[in-house]
């Protein structure tokens, strides 16, 4: 058995999944090559391992070093035991699960076998469990964990160092980003949440009111995002700020006939437009006679101008720049599966609104980065031409 190690009053608790061969031999968690890489990351961001409490979900080495090999009923007992241990650490502000099962134990999120979910009372099919977002997507998110004494802790998942050592060292920036966030968030128990409001499936009167607001405020940049569930233009969302969005539905023919004129008007206003990979949106809007006028900003292109070697997906960029980031993309993009069972599409329209608000907030962050690094004129000279194919 490899028990936890480190100060019990630590502000940061790291939770691995299970000890490996080296940990079992030495009797301490997170040693060997993975532990050495983790130490490098910690030092880079100004943290030191003696300040951190380290636990494992399972305190015994699993068969073949695979936590999936532990029977679901036993694993469920380890989940309950981990929660008991976490509850006993009164000084913690942040818990950092490294791995899918550690993340699942504290948040209910992560790519784990259906058996462990069922053992803890969740009714889920194997195919649904397999589609859950994994730790590489959830990393950097900030979730809440409530102890048995009703105390709230932050949970910030990150990827286990072993993942980087197995052919992913080029992506090590993720570790530095996550641990910078963990360090900042460990300073207090306060959980920041931006108040974002999403108007979904609005009435025609509400759309008219919003158009009037935009007409009166041409100085507001307008973020736009579409969804194409079922291989059709399902909705178009707009956000004039990071805090408010409106999603106009175009799922059925009657909605398209009634609402497309308003969508066309909004897309062609004098307001500067913000998109994420906007060429996709223009491709779908063009057949309806809708053009994106004054499209000056594309968050994917803005980030590419800053670092062409990095990834540029919206969820990844938000994990870097958005303070209260929580991964949301799988729920939005798996809409086809959800539509088979859902009685309405309200949650999916909300995800579209989240895309719009996140894109708007991300734009402000990236614009500041371009200005600070002297790349703003470079962006204007080399990227804007691509927006008008």
Describe the SSE topology.
Layout: E1 12-16, H1 21-26, H2 32-45, E2 53-56, H3 72-88, E3 94-97, H4 100-107, H5 114-119, H6 126-130, H7 135-138, E4 143-146, E5 152-155, H8 161-165, H9 173-185, E6 197-200, H10 204-216, E7 222-227, E8 235-241, E9 244-249, H11 253-267, E10 273-275, H12 278-285, E11 295-298, H13 299-306, H14 314-321, H15 329-333, H16 335-339, H17 346-372, H18 376-382
Parallel strand pairs: 1-2, 1-3, 3-5, 6-9, 7-10, 10-11
Antiparallel strand pairs: 4-5, 7-8, 8-9
Helix pairs in contact: 2-9, 10-11, 13-17, 14-17
Textual characterization of the structure:
This protein is α/β, with parallel strands linked by helices and 389 residues long. It contains 18 helices and 11 strands. It has helices spanning 21-26, 32-45, 72-88, 100-107, 114-119, 126-130, 135-138, 161-165, 173-185, 204-216, 253-267, 278-285, 299-306, 314-321, 329-333, 335-339, 346-372, 376-382, and strands spanning 12-16, 53-56, 94-97, 143-146, 152-155, 197-200, 222-227, 235-241, 244-249, 273-275, 295-298. Helix 14 (314-321) crosses helix 17.
């Amino acid at each position: 058995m490899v028990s936890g190690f480190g100060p019990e009053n630590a502000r940061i608790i790291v939770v691995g999944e299970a000890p490996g061969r080296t940990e079992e031999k030495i009797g301490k968690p997170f040693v060997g090559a993975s532990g050495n890489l983790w130490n490098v990351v910690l030092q880079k961001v100004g943290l030191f391992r003696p300040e951190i409490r380290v636990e494992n979900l399972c305190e015994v080495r699993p068969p073949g070093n695979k936590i999936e090999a532990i029977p679901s009923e036993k694993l469920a007992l380890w989940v309950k035991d981990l929660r008991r241990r976490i509850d006993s650490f009164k000084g913690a502000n942040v818990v950092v699960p490294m791995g899918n099962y550690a993340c699942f134990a504290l948040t209910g999120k992560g790519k784990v076998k259906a058996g462990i979910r069922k053992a803890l009372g969740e009714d889920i099919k194997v195919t649904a469990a397999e589609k859950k977002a994994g730790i590489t997507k959830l990393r950097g998110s900030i979730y809440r964990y409530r102890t048995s004494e009703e105390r709230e802790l932050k949970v910030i998942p990150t990827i286990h160092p072993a993942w980087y050592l197995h052919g992913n060292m080029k992506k090590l920036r993720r570790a530095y980003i996550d641990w910078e966030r963990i360090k900042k968030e460990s300073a207090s128990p306060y959980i920041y949440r931006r108040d974002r409001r999403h108007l979904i499936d609005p009435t025609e009167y509400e759309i008219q009111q919003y158009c009037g607001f935009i007409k009166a405020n041409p100085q507001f940049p307008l973020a736009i995002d579409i969804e194409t569930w079922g291989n059709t233009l399902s909705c178009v969302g707009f956000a004039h700020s990071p805090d408010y969005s409106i999603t106009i539905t175009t799922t059925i023919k009657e909605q398209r006939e009634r609402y497309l004129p308003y969508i066309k008007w909004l897309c062609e206003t004098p307001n500067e437009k913000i998109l994420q990979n906007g060429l996709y949106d223009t491709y779908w809007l063009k057949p309806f006679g809708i053009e994106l006028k004054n499209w000056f900003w594309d968050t994917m292109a803005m980030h590419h101008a800053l670092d062409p070697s990095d990834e540029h997906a919206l969820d990844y960029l938000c994990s870097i720049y958005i303070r209260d980031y929580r991964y949301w993309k799988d729920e939005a993009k798996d809409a086809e599966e959800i539509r088979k069972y859902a009685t309405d599409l309200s949650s999916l329209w909300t995800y579209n609104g989240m895309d719009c608000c996140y894109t708007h907030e991300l734009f402000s962050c990236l614009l500041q980065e371009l200005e600070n690094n002297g790349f703003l004129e470079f962006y204007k000279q080399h990227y804007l031409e691509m927006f008008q194919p």
